[in-house]
Design a protein that fits this description.
single chain; two-stranded antiparallel ribbon; elongated; 2 strands; 159 residues
């Protein structure tokens, strides 16, 4: 179903939330693939592998959220958008790295297949818990106000 009538503010928020979720899923899959490749494939310790994996997803997440979800164009405001987004992402990185490092220690003797499931699951658990807070901060603080384009949410949204 394609939603094109975002007439009510609630529908616009739902559309932004849904699109933000799609961005999060995409960057999570990217980070999980990098985490598994480094920790299970290359033998990098779980904590440092998570740092690299999450850092690889922050840039694409910022760009996709800013441009697709909140319809911002041009250069981002360093103090109002970019720095707070990165600080919020780094806080998630710290929390997820603690969780992944602990899971890495716990699963050190497990098979590679089991670790390939357990390590990304620890990462996703932390970011999943933080997702609603992150969306609220993005929507109400970082990208609040009128977007650069006419609509406050994507014109077409696949539901």
């Amino acid at each position: 179903m394609i939603v094109t009538d975002l007439g009510s503010p609630q529908r616009a928020v739902f559309a932004r939330m849904s699109c933000c979720f799609v961005v999060s899923v995409g960057t999570t899959l990217l980070s999980a693939a990098i985490l598994v490749a480094l920790a299970s494939g290359a033998g990098v310790p779980a904590g440092p592998a998570n740092v690299v994996a999450v850092l690889c997803g922050i840039g694409p997440s910022f760009v996709a959220n800013r441009r697709w979800v909140w319809r911002r164009t041009g250069r981002g405001d360093l103090l109002r958008e970019t720095a707070p987004f990165w600080l919020m992402s780094i806080a998630g990185l710290v929390l997820s790295t603690v969780a992944v490092a602990r899971m890495g220690a716990l699963s050190a003797s497990w098979s590679s297949a089991a670790r390939s499931i357990a390590l990304p699951l620890a990462n996703v658990s932390v970011f999943g818990a933080l997702w609603l807070l992150q969306f609220a901060l993005l929507d109400r603080v970082l990208f609040r106000g009128r977007p650069d384009k006419d609509d406050a949410a994507p014109k077409e949204f696949a539901a």
